[in-house]
Amino acid sequence: MRYVEHVVDLVGNTPLVRLGTVAEGLDPLVLAKVEYLNPGGSVKDRIALRMIEAAEASGELKPGGTIVEPTSGNTGVGLAMVAQRKGYRCIFVCPDKVGEDKRNVLKAYGAEVVVCPTAVEPEHPDSYYQTSDRLARETEGGWKPNQYANQANPESHYATTGPEIWEQTEGKITHFVAGIGTGGTISGVGRYLKDVSGGRVKVVGADPEGSVYSGGSGRPYLVEGVGEDFWPSTYDKDICDEIVAVSDADSFEMTRRMAQEEALLVGGSCGMATVAALRVAASAPADSVIVVLLPDGGRGYLGKVFNDGWMSSYGFLPPTEGATIGDVLRRKDGSIP
Ligand code: PMP
């Protein structure tokens, strides 16, 4: 019989999938590391497992303890899944702009969700930063993973994602491309690939236009999960050989093409990273092997990037009224798939 004891045992070992039509006309091999195939649906399952195991080992998280983290998304799902397996309570703190569906996913896994007003300064006692700090302090056995400062975040990628990519490409990878949020993915995978290849592998960060990593001031953008308005300590500032800034419009267009042309229903940061990977491919030597990491799936974004009304309200699609199916599906070159 072939089975695992628990779904948490399935974290990692995600496949590489070759990108086809979106990479048409480019000589390098472009491979996507499909992280939505993790059991919690995102790359964050990896860091959740390692942050919890590191805190158990250091004694910060004790049996029966409570995990308190400001998160509304993927990290919360990963933490809730691992917490359930290991018998911890979870309290997640979300700003009120986070949709009900996302909160309900966390509740479905058995987590408690505390909602805070978005329209207050970070220093305000009701802000989601202050609330999560207070709850972690005041809850008996409380522990805050803090994915933006926890070194187990990049370490999880050094220990798992990096070696997987190296083995899957038989050491032939020449470029690694990923978006930067906490910076854990790019720093951990990038460091591993540089170490194992003697510095040969090029590491390319993908960043929303306006974010600090590509020289912006933190100007708002709509792609979720990537870009910052501050420098987290989980990001190794020396890791990237290049940073490619990608607009919301290009990110969302590619996200939709990924679903329509590659059958990869992925989130907006995946479209963004893919745009960066294809730009790298366009100027890289023909025999390059480019791996782009796709952090999550697209189901959490059905009301946004995959919703024509939402897309047209931001000017990413022509107004929906009277729009034809061709307008919605049209590729950059004007053709209709
Ligand atoms: N994309 C999505 C959807 C994410 O949730 C995150 C994590 N914030 C990232 C990309 C970036 O990954 P990292 O935090 O490892 O830089």
Tally of strands: 10
Low-pLDDT windows of residues: none
Q: Please identify the structural class as seen in this structure.
A: alpha/beta
Number of helices: 10
What is the average of the pLDDT values?
93
**Termini distance?**
43 Å
Order of helices and strands: EEHEHEHEHEHEHEEHHEHH
Please characterize this protein's 3D structure:
The protein has 337 residues and is of the alpha/beta class. Helix content is 36%, strand content 15%. It has helices spanning 44-58, 74-86, 100-108, 128-138, 152-168, 184-197, 248-262, 268-283, 308-313, 325-329, and strands spanning 16-18, 29-34, 66-70, 89-95, 112-116, 142-143, 175-179, 202-208, 242-246, 289-294. The chain has a six-stranded mixed β-sheet with strand order 1-2-10-7-8-9. Strands 5-4-3-6 form a four-stranded parallel β-sheet, with helices on both faces. Strand 4 (89-95), helix 3 (100-108) and strand 5 form a beta-alpha-beta unit. Helix 1 (44-58) packs across helix 5 (152-168). The radius of gyration is 20 Å and the shape is globular. The chain binds 4'-deoxy-4'-aminopyridoxal-5'-phosphate. 4'-deoxy-4'-aminopyridoxal-5'-phosphate (PMP) is lined by residues 73-74, 179-185, 224-226, 267, 269, 295-296.
List the keywords.
single chain; 337 residues; alpha/beta; 6-stranded mixed sheet; 4-stranded parallel sheet; 10 helices; 36% helix; transferase activity, transferring alkyl or aryl (other than methyl) groups; cystathionine beta-synthase activity; EC 4.2.1.22; lyase; pyridoxal phosphate
